[in-house]
Amino acid sequence: MKTFYHFFLLFVSFIFVFQNTVYETKDDQHFSLNSEAAILIDGATGTILYEKESNRLMYPASITKIVTGIIAIEEGNLDDIVTVSETARNVIGTRVYLLEGEQVTLLKLVQGLLINSGNDAGTAIAEYFDGSEAQFAERMNQFVRDTVGVKNTNFQNPHGLFDEKHQTTAYDMAIITQYAMKNPIFRSIVGTKEMEWIGKGWETTLYNHNKLLWRYEGTTGVKNGYVSQSGNTLVASVKRGNSEWIAVTLKADSSELAYGDMVKLFDYGFEHFQTNKITLNPSAFESYIDRFVIPEQLIFTSDKDEKFDIQIDDSAFLIVVLNFDGKKIYSKELEINNNKELKRDNTEDPSIEKKAASSPFSTSITFMFMLILTVVILILRKKRKQKKLSKQIFEN
User: Fold this and answer.
1) Which of 19, 73, 168, 232 could form a disulfide with 252 if both were Cys (CB 3.0 to 4.6 A apart)?
2) Which pTM was predicted?
């Protein structure tokens, strides 16, 4: 019987994994990108719609500033006055031409950082928080690990100038951006097309370096970058209807190739997928209300124009979305209603029971389980009889 229990546990594990299969990425053989690494996700759900080398360590360049910007917004006081240091004044690369000793609000530094990609603004922000770029980099790394939850990113500075240890992945940057875009101040800044800049050393109109804001309908942000070692990098977000996609492309040979890849990714997303935001009618789940807290809304990704059905699997404490082929699109764990004792109610609406039982998904699982269980029991009985017979022969 020990063998049977091992087999049984293995089979139960198989069922659990099968029922929690993640949404599969479509594979179009005619779809190709110039960038060496890329990813497209649903900004609402985090579902991966397309990926290419998305976990490969790469140099991010100025898309690093997404992290610097969201930290400044969430952990600083945007009205604080920051005094620009000589170090910030002399940083190389793209700048907003801050002068040593100039006093600027933290908010203005974040705007210069994200709209005009000011490296000097990035250094000034780092020094405002921690006194140096190196110390602020430790804050950045802790933030993306502990607050955002990504694991394959290591920053060495606040602006993205090249350092061999300054690395991330397309996946990590997509998840970081998904987090940042939930902040309305960050979202507003990265979506700003132009801004009047009046500083001691520079008076001009800043134009957002992200050209997709002018080129692609529905673009909401976020940031581009370039150093020779990283090639052209780009993070962008686009919203149409209920769907907002976030895409990352790393190491394209030119900015135009990066923008071209981004357009391909977004076109692909809108052609094949949709974000569903379904408000649930509690009366449809009336027989479960005494046991579970029914969510007000479900948000999930599906194929474009896909039809689906929503059911409750009370044995697994799940609300499940199935397409009309019986394939699970999405599931969400249900919260137990602590006001009632959790037990099966035999007065449930029989139509709901029949609906769940008639699902091809649940039927196939049940049939497979019963079939394998029967075979295992027969094999074990046969072995037991053979063992008993051998024992009798030996004793005789």
Assistant:
1) 232
2) 0.79
